[in-house]
């Protein structure tokens, strides 16, 4: 593979027009194109102050990635020319069946790009991403846990609105993906419906963009690699906070002199703070010990939202573990409360 194959392509090739309002990009899809946008810590928004610029990621299989990419990245280049977006797929890793598609651009550009990708996958059915119904496609979006409330809305009102408006069917996962603070939202529907749904989802993400800070991106390859680094103590990745049950690689005081030390702030609803602290501070102490990060909690809410600020200080690796454990604990508490409500309702 030439060096240009692993870079974001900027081809002037135009796509062949088909009868569909969304052009089908080239069907020759043998490539190992690598996504230069893929990184371990990212926000779904550009580094500039243009609120209309959005990054939206999705999980695809290796075969689907080949269709999306095309030979030597030709299809991705055509997609970029048509929509004006930047697009790419994470590199191939042996033993990893999923890859991450990343699309960055204007809201309309990103929505159109996903519609084009949907059309191409529909014309080249390879896997579960293509529904048994030939008129439907499934897109597995990766959404930050912090932004799920924005997409779902109070009592599911927003997700219902998006479904009614666009005609898609959406299913949001309840658990975090391993070693990340992202969750999957499946969007199933016709190409035009996918386009409308992505427009609405993108608007939600942009309007509440500040909540995306500190997102830990899901990296399928990282899960495989991390599980192989501790052969004596294999890790079963379940998506729960208990996944990080191994001792931290460095003691808590040592990171204070580390030049890589980072500080991250996250907001936690006040009614959830108790479950994170635990009885006598047992749970927060456990999270500190397992992650290797220093975690401090504001005594009062920082604004009218009633949320309290958690400040996490440590190396990027330690902070990642801390965030994962914190969000895992939140998920466990939410499930516990839901079960309690359902149990009360059946009595």
Description of the molecule:
This protein is α+β, with helices and mostly antiparallel strands and 347 residues long. 37% of the residues lie in helices and 18% in strands. It contains ten helices and nine strands. The protein has helices at residues 62-69, 74-83, 107-123, 145-152, 157-166, 191-207, 220-228, 270-277, 282-291, 316-346; strands spanning 53-61, 86-89, 98-106, 137-144, 169-172, 182-189, 262-269, 294-297, 307-314. The strands form two sheets. It has a six-stranded antiparallel β-sheet. A hairpin with an 8-residue loop joins strand 2 (86-89) and strand 3 (98-106). Helix 9 (282-291) packs antiparallel against helix 10. It is globular, with a radius of gyration of 21 Å. The termini are far apart. Mean pLDDT is 75; it is low at 1-19, 26-42, 46-51 and 226-253.
Write a compact overview of the structure shown.
By secondary structure, this protein is of the alpha+beta class.
Features:
six-stranded antiparallel beta sheet; alpha+beta; disordered N terminus; 37% helix; 347 residues; 9 strands; single chain
Give a topology summary.
Layout lengths: L52 E9 H8 L4 H10 L2 E4 L8 E9 H17 L13 E8 H8 L4 H10 L2 E4 L9 E8 L1 H17 L12 H9 L33 E8 H8 L4 H10 L2 E4 L9 E8 L1 H31 L1
Antiparallel strand pairs: 1-3, 1-4, 2-3, 4-6, 5-6, 7-9, 8-9
Helix pairs in contact: 2-3, 3-6, 5-6, 9-10
Order of helices and strands: EHHEEHEHHEEHHEHHEEH
DSSP summary, beta strand count: 9
- What is the number of helical segments per DSSP (H or I, 4+ residues)? 10
Strands of the largest sheet, in order across it?
A: 2-3-1-4-6-5
Calculate the terminal CA-CA distance, rounded to whole Å. Answer: 64 Å
pLDDT under 50 segments (min length 5)? 1-19, 26-42, 46-51, 226-253
Structural class computed from helices and strand pairing: alpha+beta
State the helicity in percent bands. Answer: 25-40%
Q: Over all CA atoms, what is the radius of gyration?
A: 21 Å
Largest sheet: 6 strands, antiparallel
Mean pLDDT: 75
Question: Shape from CA axes?
Answer: globular
Percentage of residues in DSSP E strands: 15-25%
């Amino acid at each position: 593979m030439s060096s240009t194959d692993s870079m974001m392509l900027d081809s002037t090739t135009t796509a062949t027009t088909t009868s569909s309002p969304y052009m089908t990009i080239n069907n020759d899809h043998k490539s190992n194109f690598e996504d230069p946008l893929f990184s371990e810590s990212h926000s779904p928004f550009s580094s500039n102050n243009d609120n209309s610029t959005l990054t939206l990621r999705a999980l695809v299989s290796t075969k689907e990635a080949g269709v999306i990419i095309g030979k030597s990245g030709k299809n991705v280049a055509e997609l970029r020319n048509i929509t004006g977006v930047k697009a790419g797929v994470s590199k191939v890793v042996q033993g990893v069946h999923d890859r991450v598609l990343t699309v960055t651009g204007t809201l309309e550009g990103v929505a159109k790009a996903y519609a084009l990708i949907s059309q191409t996958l529909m014309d080249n059915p390879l896997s579960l991403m293509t529904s048994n119904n030939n008129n439907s496609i499934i897109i597995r979006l990766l959404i930050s846990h912090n932004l799920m409330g924005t997409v779902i809305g109070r009592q599911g009102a927003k997700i219902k609105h998006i479904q009614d408006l666009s005609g898609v069917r959406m299913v949001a996962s309840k658990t975090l993906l391993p070693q990340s603070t992202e969750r999957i939202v499946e969007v199933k529907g016709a190409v035009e419906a996918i386009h409308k749904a992505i427009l609405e989802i993108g608007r939600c993400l942009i309007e509440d963009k500040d909540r995306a800070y500190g997102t830990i991106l899901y990296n399928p390859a990282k899960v495989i690699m991390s599980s192989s680094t501790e052969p004596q103590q294999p890790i079963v990745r379940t998506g729960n906070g208990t996944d990080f049950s191994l001792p931290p690689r460095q003691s808590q005081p040592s990171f204070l002199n580390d030049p890589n030390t980072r500080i991250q702030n996250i907001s936690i609803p006040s009614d959830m703070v108790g479950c994170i602290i635990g009885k006598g501070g047992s749970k927060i102490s456990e999270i500190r010990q397992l992650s290797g990060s220093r975690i401090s909690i504001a005594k009062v809410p920082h604004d009218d939202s009633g949320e309290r600020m958690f400040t996490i200080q440590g190396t990027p690796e330690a902070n990642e573990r801390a965030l994962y454990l914190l969000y895992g604990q939140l998920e466990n508490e939410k499930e516990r409360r839901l079960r309690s409500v359902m149990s009360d309702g059946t009595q």
